[in-house]
User: What shape does this take?
Amino acid sequence: PWMSHSGLHPALWPCWTAPAPTPEIPMELIFVIDSSESVGPENFEIIKDFVTALVDRVTVGRNATRIGLVLYSLEVRLEFGLNRYTTQQDVKQAIRKMVYMGEGTYTGTAIRKTTQEGFFGARTGVRKVAIVLTDGQADKREAIKLDIAVREAHAANIEMYAIGIVNTSDPTQVEFLRELNLIASDPDREHMYLIDDFNTLPASFLTDYHHQCNAKLPEKGPESDPIGSDTLS
Assistant: This one.
């Protein structure tokens, strides 16, 4: 089975409760959202619900958490930067207005834009966090390679979370998992979430929002490498 009662991939078991983050500690937070053809317009609406639910869990403001968003397909767009909105309501309205793209998956380009433009003007000494949500491998035609873009982001002290919607029947799944592993900051067990259905996305990630999880791939076969800090370091 690929589903737990909360919708998380069993690779994220067992979990234990971690201390809840203090919402008053400011962050510079950017969502990096896959809007490719495989996502589909209905699932794109679910993603909007999920992101707005996360926005509800932080204190938004000039002296609190500031939020930006990068939307990508073949085109990569900074929907809004950190300086644009100063209230939860304004951020959520902007998310609701996002238009589905429906083409390829230029994840590397999106991460580079996040590093170079999304976090432009970030406050000194404030934690920088990016949440990358994607349902498939980066496009092989992409000029900006994923590993290089990720290296740049990590070098810029951006804490990267990877949320992957994993299709169990997809033969490219192993490579996709490696890409998610590459994106996620170390330790990966705290920064990588695998979900097998868009419909479980809001519940599963929010339910386990304060959990740290041990993540391992199946023990046998080509997928036997652990999803951990050693896999793609």
Summary: Residues 1-23, 206-233 have pLDDT under 50 and may be disordered. Helices lie at 41-55, 88-96, 107-118, 146-155, 173-183, 201-207. The first strand starts at residue 15 and ends at 17. Residues 27-210 form a domain with the Rossmann fold fold (CATH 3.40.50.410).
